[in-house]
Design a protein that fits this description.
- The protein contains ten helices and two strands.
- It is elongated and about 60 Å long.
- Strands 1-2 form a two-stranded antiparallel ribbon.
- By secondary structure, it is mainly alpha-helical.
- Helix content is about 60%, strand content about 0%.
Length: about 270
């Protein structure tokens, strides 16, 4: 059996990996409000817990060591590779870094961070114009960055599941869904039917297989899929600081210190 002290106790790598992923997420999030910091803090706590067990102390392996050694006697559970529990439990004999679950985790993590980063320029441009962000990823889903965070969490959970991250995961998913509902209610109060039309056409997250947008004909005789020039004018004139960082609006303070919102004129200066 491997010496656990040689396989773990690498706290520098735990800190380094957690810092890299947290800073990357922060660069596209920039939390300002209490709600922002709460959601970002929960995401950061998930990463700290994950990398602490991945490189520091294998708490899950210790707690489950009796059952693991009895159920899978051929596995050296205190080697570092054994922390890839899905590969070990499904009998993957080769290097777990080349296992199917590891590749799946890379796809999920990479896809999640791509959603987070690709959505940010659309958010920035929409705030500069004072419009709803309905292009790019926002033409596919209303909350691409929330969806991205969910994919990142899922990917890390597939790659290196622990008891603590398994307990945190459903809470985080629930938290993002709740934040999305809260932010949409605030947006609906500001933009009324303009947002309603957008919400009918575009799903909150991923569109289900075979699901089609609702092209209901509204009272003006216009399809919700075709916004009128009056609607577009309403959106452009509604230059207000928006409540959320990960929705299809961005508060002016999230753009950066060089971009301020003049509330008296509703213009960014």
């Amino acid at each position: 059996m491997s010496d656990v002290s040689s396989s773990y106790g690498l706290w520098f790598f735990a800190f380094l990996n957690a810092a890299i992923f947290i800073i990357f997420a922060f660069s596209f999030f920039k939390p300002q409000t209490t709600r922002d910091w709460r959601s970002f803090g929960a995401f950061s706590a998930f990463l700290v817990a994950l990398f602490s067990e991945m490189y520091g102390f294998p708490l899950t392996i210790y707690l489950l060591s009796g059952w693991l050694q009895t159920s899978y006697p051929g596995v050296d559970w205190f080697s570092h590779d054994a922390g890839h529990l899905p590969e070990m439990m499904f009998g993957w004999q080769a290097n777990p870094h080349f296992g199917p679950f590891h590749f799946l985790s890379f796809v999920l993590i990479g896809g999640g961070f791509w959603l987070i980063s690709a959505a940010w320029p659309v958010l920035y441009a929409a705030q500069r114009k004072g419009e709803l962000a309905t292009t790019g990823l926002y033409a596919r889903m209303r909350h691409p960055q929330y969806a991205g965070f969910a994919l990142v969490l899922t990917g890390f959970l597939v790659q290196w599941p622990t008891l603590l991250t398994l307990a945190m995961y459903p809470f985080l998913i629930w938290m993002y869904a709740r934040l999305a509902r809260t932010e949409e209610q605030e947006t609906r109060e500001r933009f009324g039917t303009v947002f309603e039309d957008y919400a009918r056409r575009v799903p909150a997250f991923f569109r289900l297989w075979g699901q089609r947008p609702d092209n209901h004909i509204d009272k003006r005789g216009q399809s919700n899929g075709n916004r009128t020039s009056q609607d577009r004018t309403t959106v452009r004139k509604s230059r207000v600081p928006f409540p959320d960082s990960l929705h299809h609006f961005v508060p002016a303070h999230r753009i950066g210190s060089s971009a301020d919102l003049d509330h008296s004129r509703g213009q960014i200066r």
